[in-house]
Specification:
The chain contains 20 helices and 15 strands. The protein is of the alpha/beta class and about 475 residues long. The two termini are about 40 Å apart. The structure holds pyridoxal-5'-phosphate (PLP). The site of pyridoxal-5'-phosphate has 14 residues, from helix 8 and strand 8.
């Protein structure tokens, strides 16, 4: 064992190996040294458990492979073949060309982010998307923060700290990723007052809970990721608005997805729009930038000018602020809505609007590019009718008819794992023991890459 350990080269000796020396030239010394140390350590471990010392060429090869892993970023582009359009785990909305371009420009150059060009003095970053948001929704004023969770925390902290917030028991929910309304409430220092029951809440429930001094607001949380069906009741916004006005308290709605366009023309349920919520009487509305809006991650607060002014004056806003690339991307996204080009430009809406016929054509192309693989037959690679979902905390239970490619393989879980290990990784669904790939969320520009990865992964598996 000692003799084998002695055979291991030193770090310096490995550094002068031609392969390793080439790596140093390309990637710098410190990362290579780290890879060498790790490989020597693992070779030592191998020897201690009875193996022989690897030859230096073999060690050099291992250093190269370890360095590759070390230098690969952990955040990677992924092909989303799940058919879930706003997939939170896969990064939510893809951005339009216009938004990407604007973000690139904002990142590459100085900007007037907080500089008033006509006046030649300090300005505010919050002017940039605000006017557009107001124009598109009819809001008096708007402000943008890091995400919708931040928007809700800001609103509760500024408007209700130390005071009571009334919310229906049917809306005390967890949005996902640990965002639980009761916890957020506690965090902000607002006092939660639950009213009604899980399935039925009436205006009188809210009214009985209003206290002239203690109550700050009624909070309505949009059921983004769940549905309560059957024997249910929940007052509509105009009723709550009337109640809030009568008692001089605020009505705030957390819309979650916050769409600007109607989802109903696409065969989906109607998701309330920001403009509807405001015109139904909400004093303040919060929404996400990267759900159905189809923009970058952001939290939008829209509503009464005096309320937005209070939010902007609170020190917390500094900690929740958005950066210039986000503002640039959001602004560009909103401009597409203003020009009524959202359906042509914004990927989320293009995916929602994609017709089953067009999706079938693409799935058929994928299929014919696979049929010559050994073990795959017209019976194991088929087009199937199934459904896509909007996802991302909008329209729970609502689906869009789609045509997906179904591939029957002996061990679908193992094949799915290999697809996830591909470069780029491919994420698929497994349904009825077969792989299911939905073209709706795969960009047409990714088709060739997807087919190549499928061919490589399936060759040799299918016959199994
Ligand atoms: C998604 C969602 C949130 C959280 O929004 P983020 O932008 O992810 O922070 C909050 N409330 C509702 C109702 C949501 O749907």
């Amino acid at each position: 064992m000692q003799a084998e350990l002695k055979k291991l080269p030193s770090v310096d000796r490995l550094l002068s190996h031609p392969v390793v020396a080439g790596l140093v030239e390309q990637h710098g010394r410190s990362a290579v040294v780290e890879a060498i140390r790790a490989e020597l350590e693992s070779a030592r471990g191998g020897i201690l458990s009875g193996q022989t010392a690897p030859a230096i060429d073999r060690l050099a090869g291992r250093v190269r492979r370890r360095l590759e892993v070390l230098l690969t970023p952990t955040l990677l582009p992924v092909i989303n073949a799940t058919g879930v359009i706003v997939h939170t785990n896969l990064g939510r909305a893809l951005l339009s060309q216009r938004a990407r371009q604007a973000m690139l420009e904002a990142a590459s150059s100085y900007t007037n982010l907080e500089y008033d060009l006509p006046a030649g003095q300090r300005g505010s970053r919050y002017v940039h998307a605000a006017d557009l948001l107001c124009r598109l929704t009819g809001a008096e004023a708007a402000v943008v923060v890091n995400n919708n969770a931040a928007a809700v925390i800001l609103a509760l902290t500024v408007l209700a700290q130390g005071r009571e917030v009334i919310i229906s028991r049917s809306q005390l929910v967890e949005i996902g990723g640990g965002f639980r309304i009761p916890d957020i409430m506690a965090q902000s220092g607002a006092v939660l007052v639950e009213v009604g029951t899980t399935n039925r809440t009436y205006v009188r429930d809210y009214e009985q809970a209003i206290h002239p001094d203690r109550t700050a607001m009624i909070l309505v949380v949009h059921p983004s990721n769940y549905r309560i069906t059957g024997f249910t009741a929940q007052p509509d916004l105009p009723e709550l608005s009337e109640l809030a006005r009568r008692h001089n308290i605020l009505l705030v709605e957390d819309l979650g997805s916050g769409t600007l366009l109607d989802t109903a023309p696409f065969g989906l349920a109607h998701e309330p729009t920001i403009q509807e919520s405001l015109s139904a009487g909400a004093d303040l509305v919060t929404a996400s930038g990267d759900k159905l809006l189809g923009g970058p991650q952001a939290g939008l607060l829209l509503g009464r000018a005096d309320i937005i002014q209070r939010l902007k004056r609170h020190p917390l806003i500094r900690a929740l602020r958005v950066d210039k690339t986000t503002l640039a991307g959001l602004q560009a996204t909103l401009l597409a809505y203003l020009e009524e080009k959202a359906l042509d430009e914004i990927p989320v809406w293009q995916m929602i609007a994609a017709s089953p016929d067009r999706l079938a054509r693409r799935a058929r192309k994928w299929r014919s590019a696979l049929l010559d693989l050994p073990g795959l037959t017209p019976d194991t690679v088929r087009l199937v009718r199934t459904v896509s979902t909007v996802g991302g905390g909008s329209l729970p239970g609502q689906t869009l008819p789609t045509r997906a490619l179904s591939i029957i393989v002996p061990h679908p879980d193992a094949v799915a794992a290999r697809l996830r290990a591909a470069s780029p990784p491919v994420v698929v669904r497994i349904e009825n023991n077969s792989l299911l790939l939905d073209p709706r969320t795969v960009l047409p520009s990714q088709d060739a890459q997807l087919v190549a990865i499928l061919r490589q992964t399936l060759a040799g598996t299918a016959g199994g």
